[in-house]
Amino acid sequence: MKEALSTTLLGMVTLLVAAVLSAWVMGGFSPERKLPPDLSVQAAEMGVQVVDTLQMKEIVESGSHLILDARTRSEYDQGHIPTAMSVSVQNFEESFPPIAPMLYPDAPLVVYCTGPTCDDALRLIERLREAGYPGAVLYVEGMEGWND
């Protein structure tokens, strides 16, 4: 009886290990299949205010904020939100100095990138904070939301 129980337990463990390995080999546990983090949650954890598309349209119409596009310059050149300026987070050291003279520490800024799965805008907000500009808000929906 003890031997049968031991054999059954060993068989179950073997099946479990085989299932886990099979899922891993087939891509079930690959990082590419993970859902992207919710940027709104990340923004809230960082203390960053988030605006939606309706608010973004009001910001563009009123001219109340300087709008920064965190994508690469080539993406910006293919299309951007009206009045937005390119400040690529990948090339921050090169793209930020030309706009720095237009800013002051409490300047109202809104930052965006491609869309809800792109964290470039949040990364740019971090860089702006480090440079002394803590007031940037995030347009999470980015170009995807703007174009819809």
Distance between the termini: 66 Å
Largest sheet: 5 strands, parallel
User: Would you identify the regions where 5 or more consecutive residues have pLDDT less than 50?
Assistant: 28-35
Mean pLDDT over all positions: 82
Sheet/helix structural class: alpha/beta
Describe this structure in words.
This protein is an alpha/beta fold and 148 residues long. The protein folds into two domains: 2-33; 39-147, Oxidized Rhodanese, domain 1 (3-Layer(aba) Sandwich), CATH 3.40.250. Helix content is 47%, strand content 11%. It has seven helices and five strands; from the N terminus they run H-H-E-H-E-H-E-H-E-H-E-H. The chain has helices spanning 2-25, 39-46, 53-62, 73-78, 92-95, 120-130, 142-147; strands at residues 50-51, 66-69, 85-86, 109-112, 136-139. A five-stranded parallel β-sheet has the order 1-5-4-2-3.
Q: How is this structure best summarized?
A:
The chain folds into two domains: 32 residues; 109 residues, Oxidized Rhodanese, domain 1, CATH 3.40.250. The chain is 47% helix and 11% strand.
For the structure shown, list the relevant keywords.
single chain, 148 residues, Oxidized Rhodanese, domain 1, 2 domains, 5-stranded parallel beta sheet, 5 strands, globular
List the helices and strands and how they pair.
Blueprint: H1 2-25, H2 39-46, E1 50-51, H3 53-62, E2 66-69, H4 73-78, E3 85-86, H5 92-95, E4 109-112, H6 120-130, E5 136-139, H7 142-147
